[in-house]
Amino acid sequence: MAAPNKGRRQAGSPGRPGRTLALFLIAMVALTGGMFWSGHVTPRLGIDLAGGTSITLQAKNTPGKPNAINKTNMDTAVSIIERRVNGLGVSEAEVQTQGSSNIIVNIPKGTNEKQARDQVGTTAQLYFRPVLTVAAGGPAAPAPSTSGSPSGSPSGSPSPSAGDPSSDESAGNPDPSASSTAQGRAVTDALKDETPSPGASGSDKPASSGSPDPSTTPSADPATAALEKKFTDLDCTDEAARTKANQGATPKDTIVACGTNSAGEWEKYILGPAELEGTDVDDAKGVLDQQRGMWIVTMDFTGGGTKKFQSITGKLSQQQPPMNQFAIVLDGNVVSAPSVSQTLGGSAEISGSFTQQSAQDLANILSYGALPLSFQEQSVTTVTAALGGEQLQAGLIAGAIGLGLVVIYLVAYYRGLAGIAIVSLGASGIMTYTIMSLLGPGIGFALNLPAVCGAIVAIGITADSFIVYFERIRDEIREGRTLRPAVERAWPRARRTILVSDFVSFLAAAVLFLVTVGKVQGFAFTLGLTTLLDVVVVFFFTKPVMTLLARTKFFASGHPWSGLDPKRLGAKPPLRRSRRVSAHTDPKEA
What we know:
Blueprint: H1 17-38, H2 47-50, E1 52-60, H3 71-87, E2 94-98, E3 102-108, H4 113-120, E4 126-136, H5 168-172, H6 176-192, H7 222-233, H8 239-244, E5 255-260, E6 266-271, E7 276-277, E8 281-289, E9 294-301, H9 303-316, E10 326-330, E11 333-336, E12 347-354, H10 356-368, E13 374-383, H11 386-414, H12 416-443, H13 449-478, H14 483-515, H15 519-549, H16 553-556, H17 566-569, H18 575-589
Parallel strand pairs: 5-11
Antiparallel strand pairs: 1-3, 1-13, 2-3, 4-6, 4-7, 4-10, 5-6, 8-9, 9-12, 10-11
Helix pairs in contact: 1-12, 1-15, 6-7, 11-12, 11-13, 12-13, 12-15, 13-14, 13-15, 14-15
């Protein structure tokens, strides 16, 4: 009957505790070594512990939409800002509303603070507008350019500046008044044919620098005169002037705007009504163009956006420069103005003087969409870690007191077994600290005060698992078994209890993590992590250590300070002896 069980380990047998313990120690050493190798030997801290930057944004009503500031739009803005910041790899950033029109953004120290600050309040209103005319960016500049490709064109060649000394118009009008007249002519001629038909020939269009038609002089149309003056007076080198250039304009308006060419020089544009919007962009990426050796932003359009893009590029491809260009306008500024020579499909690119970071930043903004509201940076406050440090110190003191009380209880009640529990708690603490340090650069985990509370609560959960196992061993000894079989027979019962208890704790942590936001998630994450580590430590460290120590004389003999003294536990006579006595007395009774 013994043959079928040969080679099989019976339930409750010790197995190979030395191998299990060795694997655990190797894993712990590997994690610790990885922590030192990565250079992150301390966990990342949240804004409440490390300090950082707190930004207050105030919502402003959109022109033509006086009731735009509402709960729906504010919640949408919070969601978009949070995704933008997280897209930069900034973890533990807090984005929340305050009152009815303010949004508070807290960015921890040590992250991409400046980069995140540049993006949180960017409205990212993206429009594709046809270019009607372009000129050098100074006030009363020479006549606009009527040929060449803009700085953002696929060819990458910058457009000749209208103020270039080699230009005929510039040479003929050296004084500001003459150049102002030339700009006025350009505005009039551009507005005269603001919406060219697809079949129009470039030769039928008036030249930007040609003589004005008396019937279309600026004084004949007040709107044209106003736009002419605005374009002529616009100084793109002045930041305030750039901001006010098209403030309050709607997508259907003809506007003036500023942008820079590949040489970093300012240019000003007259742009027609928007043909596409940012909502027509499906995805955007910052990539390196290997052929041209420059960073660009590629965009893929939605189905509806593709049709619109094909339509506008088909029209523009039949025009003469600069009216064969479309300007990509972000928050009122021209970031690129490529020329079109043929009908294009469902993707486009933005090129210019991009660095890797600026290209990826712009792609990040476009990917997550435009904010439904405009925001003004109301205040920027540097948050110091002094208050958080005091709270952390108080929390650590509370944790140390709690841990000390647990150790005193274990020593007083379990005596020698307390050493196993303390060493196991130490192993759990090392694993927790190491993994938290690695999760900082890995997934952006940041330790905040609630997370510290979760780690302190975990001390009790871990100690409870040891107590369950020790009590099962004691129960077996009370039944009259010796230590070695008691350790193995107690394990299956203790294991089930520990797994059920830890499963309930982990389930509570998971639910709390899913249904909460902000710092409370830090508490839930830490609680769940330490609960999983409790299972690992008990199964792969505490149990093997207990099996090995059961073979030593101190514990096996039931030393009074071992915590397993049969007399103190009120053990019954050994089961093996009781069976022998009953077997010996039966014949006499018979």
